[in-house]
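User: quick one, fold this
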Amino acid sequence: MKPHNSFSPKRQEAGVALLIAIFILLLVSGVALALVANSGSESSLAGNFRSSTSAYDAGTAGLEEARGRLLSGSPGDLNVIPGFIPVGAPLAVGQVRYILNSLNPADVVAPTTPGSAYFDNEYPQEFGVPVTAAVTQTIPSVWANSAVAQMPGPLYKWVRITAATEQSLNIDVNQDGVKDAVTPLYYDPAHIDVSGNPRPSLIVVPTAPAGVPATANQVLEVTALAALPNGSRKIEQYVVTPVTFNLNFPSALSLPGANVAFNPANSNVWFANGTDGSGAVTGSPSYTPVPGCNPNPNTILPSVGVTDPAGSTANVSAVTSQIPTRLDNHYVGAGGSPSVGNVSLSSAMDTPAELDQIVQTITDSADLVLNPPTGTSASSSSLPSSMILSGSPATCTSGTVVVNGDFTLGPQTGCGILVVTGNFNYTGNSGWNGIILVIGSGTTTFQGQGGGTGQFDGAVFVATTKSTTGSQLATLGNVNFDINGGGGNGIYYDSCWIRNAQKPPTYKVLSFHEIAQ
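Assistant:
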């Protein structure tokens, strides 16, 4: 009899549960490994991001330090080393200035030494020659060796300041098919394009006799290398240009407008003189020179300038008729005695809209803006002490003050740019070195009173751009100049004080980019 073979379904399924368990375990293990790997990647990405951000911040700190120290008179002014950044002349191509930032004395920062840890490899990429061929000067960072004093500063190593060229920026600015490597670039906010439209632009300065437009300023490259202890590096670059107001004056005292009401001083010591630097001679007890600047006595402008329509002499006559005959020779300058002339304003200062824009531009970067309540007057007691002439020898620092309303000066002498949108009043012992702009409302008036020895060296400009209700006029309105009594020593044209007052309030960033390392 054959044995009976039986088949059990339960026996056939034996071990399936184990396989499923192993599969689930492998799946869970895979997911766990993936999570661990992903966590590592995220940590690595986060670390790289932190490192990149730290390097970015360090480089930006270097750029901002340089941008701030380019300003004359700023804390850490680069020209604490005389001539470090040329004043009144461009920084020549091939002239390189470095700000060096070492963490401690053992941290050697030598960007012009081949093989050094922080050698400037970027310079030849921009200028086509090795940095060793450049004429270099260096100055320490404000943070240099800060670690020694336990004040850790930003981790940039150097900042380079150079003149920008078409080649260094890799831009054919004038579209002549050549990227010029030797001509410095300028930025002209008043540039007119080939179609005759205003278009602020980089320009290649035309050859003589055209020269640099009065509204243009040199463009500089500011380049920073940041290097972290973990080896991360980043090079960043600003392209900057100084912001300037480009204020030019046709006379010592300018009174442009439809009608001029002129009531001059009756003092034998009050003068209006359009000869550059004349305040050093006439009224010399109160004259303060600008260090390192010499006025040009061959520059002779009218002592008082007005704007008469073509064929009219109404405003010239309105001024000259009010000057006592015995004082005719107190108005010195171009055009005989008394020197009162019909003048032309610069294209940026000949309409209410343009003058109001100048006031706004100055306000945007002013050191101090005063807003006296209606019916009251701000006073010179509100001015920073640094802007008041004091000491022996007497000195003061040019600043910018805007008064949205009336202002009374006295008995101090201030320095810089003073903008008053209402009535300007002063006492005879008051004075100003620089620029006074009385531009604004329908009551815009220059008023003086009393005797004294104060004087104004630079230029004074008075114009009405708004009606009594505050709306902008279509053309310049009536202006008033009134001195009751002596009024001090007078007003003297001085190009040195005009330039000194217009120190750039900032360097505008035209572009920013990172350079691959």
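User: anything notable?
Assistant: DSSP finds seven helices and 26 strands in the chain.
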